[in-house]
Write a structure and sequence with these properties.
This protein has about 500 residues and is mainly beta. The chain has two helices and 39 strands. The longest helix has 17 residues, at about 1-20.
Amino acid sequence: MRRCVVIMVLALCVGRGWAQVTVYVAPGGSDTNSGTIDQPFKTVARGLTAVGTNGMVYLRGGVYAMGSSKLKMNAIGSAGSTIKLWAYPGEVPVLDCTGNSSDGLSIGGSYYHLRGLEVCKAGHNGINISGNYNVIENCSVHDNQNTGLHLTVSGSGVGPSNNLILNCDAYRNYDPPVGGDADGFSAKWTFGPNNVFRGCRAYNNSDDGWDLWMGTSSVLIDSCYAFRNGVDSWFSGSFDGNGNGFKLGGYYIATPHIVRNCIAFDNAGNGGKGFDENNNTGGQTLYNCTSFRNKGNNFSFGNTVVAGQNHIFKNCLSYAGGVSISSGVQGKNSWQGFTVSSADFLNLDTAGATAARNSDGSLPTSLFLRLAPGSSMIDAGVDVGLPYNGVAPDLGAFEAKVIAGIRGENIHPGSFTLAQNFPNPFNPNTAISYQLTDVSVVTLRVFDALGREVTTLVNEEQVPGEYRVEFDGNALVSGVYVATLQAGTRSQSIKMLFMK
């Protein structure tokens, strides 16, 4: 009998050790409260302390006066033990860093997941990431006195790696007095591999939309917008912002980056280029990118790359701006035998570019820069492994026959759906999207070709809505894998191809 009691106590202890802690924080709360939804804490720091390395901190809507010190997030979670700092559903917490002379949020730890937060008015970067395996989702960083969201090493080491910046906005970041250093997003100097920006917008920042200055590892920028950067919205008088859309490196550091499904327009400043190598001598890969009406060249890649690397441009579209490419592999771009005019587009009105995002955080639906029926650039591209409709890909960032989704990734409203992962084939990262119609206990698992479970990506109760999960295949061998979504009694599966 005594032995049974001991076993039961141990089981309870183990269960409690693995259980996720959930606490609530509200501007009108108190740090002496218990942290429940009815008795919330007051400060973000108190909420994070309460959950340790495995928990959920829900921030209620309202303005949080963050004070003069940066919020340091240095805990180390794990793939199965994440630290979530989320906006409470339907509410917007604003982390106001007025009076702070440094970064607003500093993430030196690993496996943090921030969602739905607004970070503003920091004296330096809004969010600074030097840790690994972090996800920043559906957040906005604005009116900070340096870059909105910045990745770089803190101290020695290879720097931040495997971070995903998903569906975030960075705007009106400005460093006085001349605005020369405040980008929307940046990954500069020393950082590690597998950092991804996806579905993000950078606009009206004093310097560049994206700046990868002297970056030491490859970055993937996927389905992002950069526009109106380098415009003096502050009437500073001595303004000196660069104003490039996507600045891919600099100072003759040979680092290859990948940019796909992105658009750049109306970037100005003293550079004002849409897509710019900025003296990066590594080979850059651009697939299905659209550049429109930038002050400088739409595409500016004039340097010779180092031996063994090549620029690769495929299915890209330039309108109302120049193209300067020194060398490399080019296939079916608009400047190769096409005559582009306003008649090729459904809409050239930029008014909707800053429209509210969709309920799942994805970019708003718009006709802007989508090809019009009859354009010679429809079905004129080459297959680069991205989804497309018709006999071949269209040129530019959008498929003409698809108004929503990313180049053909559509989820039918009102249905239980597991969409095909994107990209597919993938290496090493891919996104798996699904839609729920009922409150369900949801599991999303990945299996290898022999039916052995590789990992569990989701295992929790979820409410109706659209979800997107990142899958990192870094540890996999090449081959076919199966993702299976189970929600209550319903299930769906997809096949995914991993190619190293």
